[in-house]
Amino acid sequence: MKIIKAKNYNDMSRKAANIISAQVILYPYSVLGLATGSSPVGTYEQLVEWYAKGDIDFSNTTTVNLDEYVGLDASSKQSYRYFMNEHLFTKVNIDMSKTFVPNGKAEDLYAECRRYDDLITSLGGIDLQLLGIGHNGHIGFNEPSEAFEKTTHCIDLKPSTIEANKVFFYSADEVPRQALTMGIKSIMQAKKVLLIVNTEEKKEILEQALFGSVTPEVPASILQLHPDLTVVTCFE
Ligand code: F6R
């Protein structure tokens, strides 16, 4: 595990964007696993800036996102598909047909989960997975539980996650209660994992995740077992 200390959010974002752009420059056909939320906004901004300068070419890159709210699709501003279109996909030369986000409006959510896993397998897995961490230690929407869920699945969001994510909605009542999330197996099988953590309030959960016991009660703790994990944080 490599832990890189950044000076602040901008510095963390630049460092993360550097790692992602190195991946895309060295391996243009990479499959990038992407995250949404507040943590990666600056990273995407930086990638967009470097793309505009002509430094990165995404034309051969494929992306698979970690998760999506059940009931929302690209027409909803709070959906993760909308977020990705807004922050990255429409601002660089990526082929939209090679950008994948679970379909939160699928009629058969179970079938959608199987389809998503098959898709990731057919792509040959993920080369670089970008992650944030939830206040309760979740990665993707793998919430604390009694066992690690291996495959893409539908999850009931914990009250603390609903509370944390209400900032993106008009009120907590509007936050969907369920989400589809990539499972721990796809995340752990990514060749490289890049975890970015900016807010000091996540210091304790990050310490538990990186140095505590490996337990599904702290889903991110499984990352200790990943052979190529880089963590970029804004604190000691
Ligand atoms: C989002 C995701 C979540 C977030 C986590 C942190 O796609 O997978 O695990 O990374 O909830 O969210 P922020 O960055 O908003 O603090």
Automatic annotation (TrEMBL):
GO terms for cellular component: cytoplasm. Keywords: Carbohydrate metabolism, Hydrolase. SUPFAM superfamilies: NagB/RpiA/CoA transferase-like. Residues 31-224 form the Glucosamine/galactosamine-6-phosphate isomerase domain. Its EC number is 3.5.99.6. The keyword 4Fe-4S does not apply. Signal peptide: none annotated. GO terms for biological process: carbohydrate metabolic process; glucosamine catabolic process; N-acetylglucosamine catabolic process; N-acetylneuraminate catabolic process. The keyword Protease does not apply. CDD domains: GlcN6P_deaminase. GO terms for molecular function: glucosamine-6-phosphate deaminase activity; identical protein binding. This is Glucosamine-6-phosphate deaminase. It comes from Youngiibacter fragilis 232.1. The lineage of its organism: Bacteria, Bacillati, Bacillota, Clostridia, Eubacteriales.
